[in-house]
Amino acid sequence: MSQVFSKSPEHCAKQGGLTIDKSYKKLFFAFSSFFSIVLAFIFLIWLTLHPAKPQFSLREADIYQLSLSGTHLLSSSIQFTMLSRNPNKKVGIYYDELQAFAAYKGQQITFDSFLPPFYQGHEESNLLTTSLQGIGLPVALSFGYEVEHDQTAGRIVLNLKVNGKLRWKVGTWVSGRYRFNVNCVSVMSFGPNAPTAPLSSNQAAQCSTAV
After folding, report:
1. What is the pTM of this model?
2. Which residues have C-beta within 8 Å of that of residue 120, sequence separation ≥ 6?
C-alpha cells in the first residue's frame, strides 16, 4: 500500500517564501559586489591621476583711471594679463563661467568682466587678458584717504581676481563642474612723483588658487 503525503498550504507558502528570500539576497549581494568593484575602480583611477589644480601667475597690470566723484563714487579702468597653466600630464581642463574683477582693501572697484570659456590640454599654458571698468561705483568714505595714504607710502596694492567653474577631462570622460577662485596681488609704485596714468606693474607674481 502506498502512502500519500500531503503538505498544508501554509507549509508550502513558508517554503516558497524562503526560496524568494534567498533569491533576493543573492541579487542584493551580486549588485553590492558589482557596485563595490565599480567604486574601487573609480577610486583607483582617481588615485592614479589625481588632477592637480591649475596654476595662475600675474604677468602685467595697468591702472589707467582711479578717480572719485564726490566722496564715494569711483570710476576705474584697469587692464591685466595672467598666465594660466595646466600642470597635469593626463588630465585636460575645461574653464567655464569665468569672471574677473579688481579689489582694493577688500572693496570691489570694477564691475565683473566675463572671459570666454576655453579648453586647456595636458601641460598647456594660455595667456588671459581682460579690461576692467567701473563707473559710479559706491565705495567707502575712507577710500580717498586710503589712496592718499598709499601715495605717501609710495605704493598701491590691488587684488586682481578670477572666479569660475572648471571640469576635468580624462580621455572621453568629463567630470562635473567645480568652482575655483584665483587671487593675484599686484604691487605698483605710486609715489607723489609717479605719472598719473597708467600705473604699471610688469613683475611676474604667483597667484593663489582654490578649487
Report:
1. 0.76
2. 54, 84, 86, 92, 93, 94, 95, 126
